[in-house]
Amino acid sequence: xxxxxxxxxxxxxxxxxxxxxxxxxxxxxxxxxxxxxxxxxxxxxxxxxxxxxxxxxxxxxxxxxxxxxxxxxxxxxxxxxxxxxxxxxxxxxxxxxxxxxxxxxxxxxxxxxxxxxxxxxxxxxxxxxxxxxxxxxxxxxxxxxxxxxxxxxxxxxxxxxxxxxxxxxxxxxxxxxxxxxxxxxxxxxxxxxxxxxxxxxx
Length: 202
Ligand SMILES: Cc1cc2nc3c(=O)[nH]c(=O)nc-3n(C[C@H](O)[C@H](O)[C@H](O)COP(=O)(O)O)c2cc1C
What we know:
Helix content: 25-40%
Order of helices and strands: HHEHHEHHEHEEH
Bound molecules: flavin mononucleotide
Distance between the termini: 38 Å
Radius of gyration: 18 Å
Structural class: alpha+beta
């Protein structure tokens, strides 16, 4: 698929049919994810791949706000055969930038105007979303409630210095069903409204 077509077609998909995802496609998503840029080439990311029904069910049990309350969102998202959780490590960046060529040995967090660890992992997540489209699949990036981080970490043996920036469901899309999410209520802002050429005002 042409790159511009991949970009244009990508929308979050929140319900999937019962076809499995080819493991080779998941591998390709991860191969693409690690091509993302990262500050200082720190690569302070990690990806937890859950591709069996049992593991995916454990994911929802650990992370859903209230797994016993069925919402149409949760019902749709649970149909995904694969969940990939991208995690970021602040420590990896503090370690990397304390090396000789960077020299930030004080490990002062005020040096970081924005959290590059989350930015870089987010860029990797976008490559996963785009690869899904390129492979004819659907995917959705969504947040894990902060009060579920503990049960998520405990359930999957995730170390404290890795934070899930969200999670991604992957599967064969069911067109135009399930929760549409915010785009059902909002429209995309046009380029001219969000772009400021030469100066912000005017
Ligand atoms: C950081 C981030 C968090 C998001 N969290 C959720 C979420 O918790 N649940 C959900 O259904 N969609 C979530 N989304 C998807 C957005 O709702 C969606 O990207 C936006 O409405 C634009 O729609 P589109 O991606 O289909 O073009 C999230 C997207 C991002 C980038």
